[in-house]
Fold:
Amino acid sequence: MSSNFSYKIYSSVKNLPSNWDSLATNNIFLSRDYLTVLEISAPKNMSCHYIGLFQDEELLGLAVSQFINLSDIPSFGERDNCIKTKIRSFVFRNLSSKVLIIGNNMLTGQNGYFFDKKLPTAAGLLLLKNAADELKSVFTKKGMNVHLTIFKDFLEPEIQNFKIPKYKSFFRFSTQPNMIFEIRDSWHQFDDYIDSISKKYRDQYKRARKKTDGISKRKLSLEEITNHRIRIYQLYMNVAKNAPFNTFYLPENHFEIFKKSLKDRFLFYGYFIGEELIGFNTLIKNGNDIDTYFLGYDENFQREKMLYLNMLYDMIGYSINKGYRRIIFARTALEIKSSVGAKPINMYGLMKHSNPFVNLFVSKTFSYFEPKMEWQERNPFK
Structure:
């Protein structure tokens, strides 16, 4: 690599180069404002670093890294209480509990780095590998040996860029797809979407909407998010603990910090019966995309009121009416998301275990430990 390419690792947002945001214009998740959220209210078992990539003195690339300590997690998920889950928990706690990720484990999609056109992709990826190696040394000095190094979430063409010698020892893996909803040019309002779905799915929509009788939905301000903090966290944990696998839990103040930092680019919608908050969802404006973020609900009302499905319709309605191009619905609940029109997009990553012997078996054991989701893709359109 040319000697005038270099990288620098930052442990605090306040130390980032002054022109950092000029490279983060296409992705809010690399912006100083979002990274501030991470710094102040990241999960307790996560610590973040930020990487600047340079040619001479010119900033040409950005990246985010997250170190996750899985041994600090009280539960990896309580839904699947079977022998495989117990074995998986044992292995993660004892052999793979310290994980270094180049990317963002709290999001789905390639939100981990950006390279300017002047930075050749191969050179940028080499810099990131060197930065990852240095971060491993930083954590080792703190008495935390990194077990797994992961580069996540790439589309098929993007993962091909890693076919360079420096990444030869990494195992390529694929997990659940990213569910992406493309908004058609012919949809100018929500009714256009409803007109484009078949009778079966229009009936599903009408049935769901009837169930919302008695529910009021409103956008919450920072003050309201703060006032409802305890209930919001209860509802979030109801959903989080039912996930098949968790690597972190958000801190209680996460959403208010988010609102404080991103202001109107972060939307928080509460669903109420009377004065009781029974559910919420969150959206992030990211250029032409709307990214869905965390949500929560009371399990009793979710069943009775088809709350989750109604939230999906609300997200679609908002995004169409406001002229967005796509909704990033992320992972989980694949079938219900496909029933409203989201399509699965395969995502890939690379991982390497720091123990060369264990690394030989990573590819063979990964499929055993990755929670398998059986689901049927739906097509709601005429």
In short: The first helix runs from residue 20 to 23.
